[in-house]
Amino acid sequence: MTQTVAVLGTGKIGEALLSGMIRAGWRPADLLVTTRRSDRAQELHTRYGVESVTNAEAAKNADILILAVKPQDMGKLLDELAPHVTADRLVISAAAGITTTFIEERLTPDTPVVRVMPNTPVLVDEGMSVISAGSHATGAHLATAEEIFGGVGKTLRVPESQQDAATALSGSGPAYFYFLVEAMTDAGILLGLPRAQAHDLIVQAAIGAAVMLRDSGEHPVKLREAVTSPAGTTISAIRELENHGVRAALIAALEAARDRSRELASGNG
Ligand SMILES: NC(=O)C1=CN([C@@H]2O[C@H](COP(=O)(O)OP(=O)(O)OC[C@H]3O[C@@H](n4cnc5c(N)ncnc54)[C@H](O)[C@@H]3O)[C@@H](O)[C@H]2O)C=CC1
Ligand SMILES: O=C(O)[C@@H]1CCC=N1
Predict the structure, then answer these.
(1) Among 50, 142, 206, 237, which lies 20 to 30 A Cα-Cα from 87?
(2) 90 C-alpha vs ligand 2 centroid, how far in Å?
(3) ipTM exceeding the 0.90 mark
(4) How many Å apart are CA 255 and CA 269, to the nearest integer?
(5) Is residue 194 pLDDT above 70, yes or no?
(6) The Cα angle at residue 78 between residues 12 and 21, in degrees rounded to 5
(7) Pocket probe mutation, ligand 2, options 17, 167, 176, max atoms within 8 Å of Cβ
């Protein structure tokens, strides 16, 4: 029997997931969305043909509820849902930091909850979604989450204790690469290239490097060594990166993201 899936909170990640599910073959008739604003509901209907309902209606009518509001809005959303969510539903949360216990405590006892940390490349079917079971979620519930998120990229099961780290790596990860591309494009401007050309050169270098990382099976150190000619250009750049502590900065940055995810666990942010 076809299941109905509702995406509650259809902002950046909610819409990215919704669009991916439709590309992966979900019928708009089997999908529901909730929004805070009616113009947003209309926009999503025009774009995807999906019906917009209230959170309470979504809880009553959908078999699977995907919660995609900000961690700070999660407590309020769960209060709205609680009277209507029965334990035969599957609740999937995509919110950073929010634990399955936080959600379970606010819903009908025994409601299965799965925590997922996706990332925005679900928009191009190259997402990374890290999945953990709450205390009432079975293997079948995890498989359902994998089916939904696996349609738009890779999935990985981890113990929930690793979710904050995964959030720092893959959840936020795309932003670090965009930041690097932005900075390297600025460097191209400094070196006298037109902005559009600098952008294209760096983006293609990033794509080429990413595909080699994924497909060659080689360690990144080996791939970097192959670029780094003796007394050449690359080693001059690497020395500057090390002088400026870029490696240490990245380690500290991801640690800060992990810590922020832990802080968000209270739902107050
Ligand atoms: N943006 C990203 O790359 C990722 C975000 N996430 C998580 O996804 C969640 C959403 O993040 P974004 O999409 O970036 O934020 P966003 O602000 O774009 O989307 C949140 C949406 O929820 C709506 N909303 C809030 N309360 C609502 C309610 N009671 N009923 C219906 N809709 C409601 C807001 O109007 C907004 O459209 C967060 O918990 C975040 O941690 C997870 C992975 C990646
Ligand atoms: O920045 C954030 O909090 C969200 C979670 C992971 C990516 N974006």
Answers:
(1) 50
(2) 23
(3) yes
(4) 17
(5) yes
(6) 35
(7) 167
Cα(107) to ligand 1 centroid in Å equals: 20
Beta bridge partners of 90: 64
Task: Give the SS3 label for residue 154.
Answer: strand
In this model, does residue 269 exceed pLDDT 80?
Answer: no
Distance from Cα 235 to the centre of ligand 2, integer Å:
34
Q: Is 256 exposed, middle or buried (0-12, 13-18, 19+ CB in 10 A)?
A: exposed
CA distances from 28 to 67, 141, 212 (A): 18, 22, 37
Ligand 1: residues with CB < 6 A are 8-14, 34-36, 55, 68-71, 73, 76-77, 94-96, 117-120, 171
Q: Which domains does the chain have, with CATH numbers?
A: 5-159 (3.40.50.720), 173-263 (1.10.3730.10)
Measured from the CA of 171, which atom of ligand 2 is nearest?
Answer: 6
